[in-house]
Design brief:
Elements lengths: L8 E11 L2 E12 L2 E6 L6 H9 L6 E6 L2 E2 H4 L1 H4 L2 E4 L11 H12 L5 H10 L15 H9 L1 H4 L4 E5 L7 H16 L3 E5 L10 E6 L3
Parallel strand pairs: 3-8, 3-9, 6-7, 7-8
Antiparallel strand pairs: 1-2, 1-4, 4-5
Helix pairs in contact: 4-5
Length: 213
Amino acid sequence: MVFLANQYALTAEHVVGVRGERLLFEKLNFKCSNGTVLYLQGANGTGKTTLLRTLCGLSKPYAGSISWCGENINSLAEEYYKHVLYIGHLPGIKEDLTALENLQFSMALSGTPFHLLQATEVLKMLGLARGLNLPTRMLSQGQKRRVALARLWLQDSPLWVLDEPFTALDVAATELLKKKIETFANAGGMVIMTTHQEVIIDAPNFIQLRLDS
C-alpha cells in the first residue's frame, strides 16, 4: 500500500474533551499528514481513549472541531469513516466466530473484499496457524489481539487509530507490529496511537502529544 499519491490531513482545532462533568483535555491543536505517527501519551484517566474515539467520529468533541482534508468529519460521516481503521483497547471480536470468520465479518463491515488465502497467510504469519478454525473464545488474550490486528495487513485505509495495540503481545509480535507501523507510515499512511509500552517508531514525521490530568 502506497498512499503518497493521495494527500491526506487530519486536523484538530481547539478540541475539548469531557466525560460526565469532568474536563479531560482542552484546546488541543495538531495536524497529521501523510507519513505521520502521532504517539498519544498520558496517565490513565487523562482522556486518551476518549480522544481516539473522537478522532474516529465515534464521539463528538465537547468543543472544537476535527477535519479531514479540510472538511469536518461529522459532516463527512461515512465518507470519512471508510478512510479510518480503528482498533480499540479491547480486541472487538466475536468470540463464537473463528479467527477467519471474524476477519471476514470485519472486512464486510469496512467494505473491503475478503480473500480467504490472504487472510489465512496473515493469521499464520501472526502465529495463529493452530487456531484458524477455533472459536476465538478458546484463544489467549494475546491471540485474540492478533486476530484484531490482522486487519492492519488486510484493510486498505490511510488512517489507523490504535488504542494500546501492543497489549498482550510477546516480544516477537511486538516487533512485527512495530515494523508494520513503520512500513505503513513510510508508505504515506497515518497512525494515531497510544501505548504503555516503550516502543520507538521510525516514521517520516513522529509527533508526541501528552495529555495531562
